[in-house]
Amino acid sequence: MSSVQIVGVAWVLLGGILNGTFILPMKRMKVWGWENIWLAYSVVAMVVMPWTLAFATVPHLGDIFRQSSWGALIKIMVFGVGWGVGSTFFGLGIARIGMALGYAIVLGITASLGSLLPLIILHPERLLTRPGYALMAGTALVTLGLSCLAIAGRKREKETQPHALQTATTGFAFGMIICVLSGIFSAMLNFSFVFGKELVDRSLAGAGALMAANPVWALALTAGFLANAGYCAILLHKNQTWSVFLKGKGLAYGAGIVVMGLLWFGAIVAYGVGAATLGALGGIVGWPLLMTMTVITANFWGAVTGEFARASRTSRYYWWSGIATLLVAIYVVSLGGAG
Question: What is the pTM of this model?
Answer without folding.
Answer: 0.79
